Amino acid sequence: MLAAPALAAACGAPRPAPGPDPALADTLKGLIQRAYDFSRPGVAERMSSLYPDTGRVISASGGQLITTADSLRSGIRSFWDYVGKNMRDARWQWEAVYVDRLGPDAAALTGTWSIPHIAPDGQPHVIRGAWTAVFRRIHGRWMVVQEHLSRSE
Asked: How far apart are CA 144 and CA 110, in angstroms?
């Protein structure tokens, strides 16, 4: 009799296969695009919401390594205070994006992006870069747990 519940559980919904996953790519790209919606208030808070509140978070950018959620949030606030809020008409744009599911609750995204905007001097300007992020589903939400960003202007 005990075998029936175990058999029923084993025959449940199939686990997603590792590899390219277009539906998950749309989910993760959309998550980031909404966080970087410069047209609405609360950008820094939305950017921070991409990362877990606790536990280890690894972020490499500009030759620096951040290893705590608090330090990461401080970096996001600094970006927003010194760069982000000075960009007029800014908009996030994805260019090439690749997403691979690593397991049922893990994925890797690598993509190139740009943020066209008007600089404080009134001139058009574009920030570009590449981002590799490892996501883990935590309490039902996809969160960035490791990342590497490179930026070119």
From this structure: 12
- SS3 readout for the chain: CCHHHHHHHHCCCCCCCCEECHHHHHHHHHHHHHHCCCCCCCHHHHHHCCCCCCCEEEEEECCEEEEEHHHHHHHHHHHHHHCHHHCECCCCEEEEEEEEEEECCEEEEEEEEEEEEECCCCCEEEEEEEEEEEEEEECCEEEEEEEEEEEEC
Nearest in space to 50 (alpha carbons), one of 116, 148, 146: 146
Question: According to the model, what pLDDT value does residue 5 have?
Answer: 45
What's the half-sphere exposure (Cβ side, CA atoms, 13 Å) at 26? 2
Tens of pLDDT, residue by residue over 31-59, are 999 999 999 999 999 999 999 988 889 99
Q: What is the largest CA-CA distance in the chain?
A: 75
Domains of the chain: 19-152 (3.10.450.50)
